[in-house]
Amino acid sequence: MLLKLSLTGIKGRLRDYIVLFSGLVMASGIFYMFEALATNETFLKSNSMISSVVLIFHLGTVLLSIITFVYILYANSFLMTMRQKDYAMFMMLGAKGRKIAQLIFIETFVVGVGATVVGTVLGIGLSSVVQQLLVQQLAIKITHFTAVNSSAALLTLVFFTIIFLLAALVNAMTIVKKPILTLLRASETPLPANRKRVTLVFEVLAGIVFLGIGYFMMAQVMKFAFLALIVALITIILGTYFVFHSILIFVLDVLKRRDGIALKGLNNFTLSQLSFRIQDYTRILSMVAMLFALALGAITVGLGFHNEITKMTEATSTYDLVLNNGQNVSQKDLKKIHLASDNSYQQKEDNDTVYYDRTQFDQAPLLVKEFTGSRQTKKVHYTGEQLANNLTASDKLRSLELPEQSAKKHQFLSREEFAALPSKTTELRLIMVADFAKDKSALKDLAEENFRLNPTLNKEEGSMTQKVLMYELYNALFSGFEFMGFFLGIAFLTMLASCLMFKILSGAKSDIQRYSMLEKIGTRRQLLLKSIRKEIGVLFLVPGLLGVIHVLFGLQMFKTLLSEPYNSIWLPFLIFFVLYFVYYLLTVWIYTGIVMKREA
């Protein structure tokens, strides 16, 4: 009977539960995906390059777990608020508190476990997608990977079951302890809105000061290290709270006093609605702003790491391909790449010296990239004469040679002197292609062939001269951050938007009478719809804008990891705001359906 009553209650609030359900499905799906990658031991041992990002996925799991726990408690409390009258009616009809507690427990637990099961199935699909992304991004073969991971599924089920058990117990105990009259009139009891002007001004100033300190400390993270992070976290949270608890109230008060704004259309009603409930929204708006900053920051930094792969590769690699004993490389293999330049430098050597034809360097100077500071590089060309007289320049050439050559002296001879030497002639070929991304696969094959033709060349040390191998190294290092940032950003967005939606919808019941009265006295329906869009728009826009400001200042902390943290920032912002706007439209649609009767 209780199960049937619980399912009936869920059916009655189906739209609200669908929003909660979708957020939980996304959270559990991403949780499973992280664990499926991080707990597959056979997969990790078989793919040493992937194992370097395991810690990143475990870190993502911890962050996701914390945010998910907060989200579930918050979302469930909103649903309980919306069902308080139903539970009060059951109590008035003679239902015992113990039975009501069981009813609440079953509702919470059924939704939670159902979402976890569906989320795990979704996670299996996500794991398959991520596997393909890893293969494409890292350009390596992945073996022993399976999207179905029993350890990850068990961890996901246990974690979410424990959270839902706690949430169900908290919900049951909270509702049962409240008097029936309080439950019946909960949505009709406004919070006190009277605020002393002195207190308001003090909080406005405190909010500005706290945010200023937090932004300053984020910019000085290299100087103050861990202290800067702690101070920034505390002050930004306090500053965010005061923004909504005082600054927003102050701005709304100023707008209401401007007749040109307040008396236009239903603006006065909209501003009054916002002023009336803003104190009750302080905590949720603060949380949404912080989650917004975390989500947008995660996606922005993740894409920033993606851009860093190419930049770091270009900064540390001058030539696209280095061929030692290049005369032995098959011309058929070289035809697979699109050459932009192919410079061959002839070598002869004895026990102590490597000899070069100086005129070849005069005709095609050796190209070297040198760091100028702040991760910037410049291209420097060295002629044969410069290489002969400059030990630093000669060392640049030595880094491209075979290990047995690097310990020998250099001599740069005229063409006639070089030709007169009796030693065997070999070639050092330095190649650049027209499009590295297009020829990446062929370049890797040629680099591998270079190692096979030169057994003394250590692959780990020799990879420093091969651009394609340096690319794979940086790709393996940064791709984990990229994927974690993207998936965490989506998870955080789903949760923050759902939380804000729940909060707005939880007050919809008490707004029905207000909109009904306005409609009865002749207010046009279009004006009412416009007022709803404006009111909800402000509640979505303000935490979003503050979150963007947090991100813009927060990117200062990543200057040590990202050479250009603000490069192409518009792309993650655009992706994020499109998704955020979809949640705004969904909230407007559901809220309108509650407070206004549908037109025939």
From TrEMBL:
One of its GO terms (biological process) is transmembrane transport. Pfam families: FtsX (PF02687). One of its GO terms (cellular component) is plasma membrane. Residues 62-179 form the ABC3 transporter permease C-terminal domain. PANTHER family: ABC TRANSPORTER PERMEASE (PTHR46795:SF3), ABC TRANSPORTER PERMEASE-RELATED-RELATED (PTHR46795). This is ABC3 transporter permease C-terminal domain-containing protein. It is found in: Cell membrane.
